[in-house]
Design brief:
With about 120 residues, this protein is of the alpha+beta class. The chain has two domains: about 45 residues; about 50 residues, no CATH class. About 40% of the residues lie in helices and about 15% in strands. It has a three-stranded antiparallel beta sheet with strand order 1-2-3, with no helix packed on it. The longest helix is centred in the N-terminal third of the chain and has 42 residues. Bound molecules: iron/sulfur cluster. Iron/sulfur cluster (SF4) binds next to loops.
Length: about 120
């Protein structure tokens, strides 16, 4: 008898557990979808007319590739800089300096005189 009660209790506990998950599933999916949308929005480049931000040398990706805003301050650059890099595309002048896009830093701009360890000679 006691064993039957235990089995019955375990059965209902499991059913309620599964039922609770099924009841929460739509809410969990909605929350997950909202987070994914927010993530996509923050990763997207700015809307037309909005100024693209410059790469911050303190950014973890920038640090990982040893990005510097002035190649003359990086002996490793050996005179190479963004303007001569295959990943660079001139975009505009900002504060009197040429800036452009870089494949490595999507949605951001780099100075033509910047450099990083991923420099690759322009073809
Ligand atoms: S990959 Fe090339 S363009 Fe991009 S930051 Fe490095 S040197 Fe500059």
């Amino acid at each position: 008898m006691e064993n039957t009660n235990m089995n019955r209790r375990r059965f209902f506990t499991q059913i309620l557990g599964v039922g609770g998950l099924v009841a929460l599933a739509p809410a969990l999916l909605k929350l997950s979808s909202a987070k994914a949308q927010e993530k996509r929005r923050s990763a997207a480049p700015p809307a037309a007319g909005g100024a693209m931000p410059m790469v911050d040398p303190k950014d973890p990706v920038a640090k990982a590739v040893k990005y510097v805003e002035d190649f003359k301050k990086a002996p490793e650059a050996k005179g190479n800089h963004c303007a001569t890099c295959g990943f660079y595309a001139k975009k505009e002048t900002r504060n009197g300096k040429e800036v452009g896009t870089c494949t490595i830093f999507a949605g951001k701009l780099v100075y033509a005189d910047a450099w990083c360890a991923s420099w690759n000679k322009k073809a």
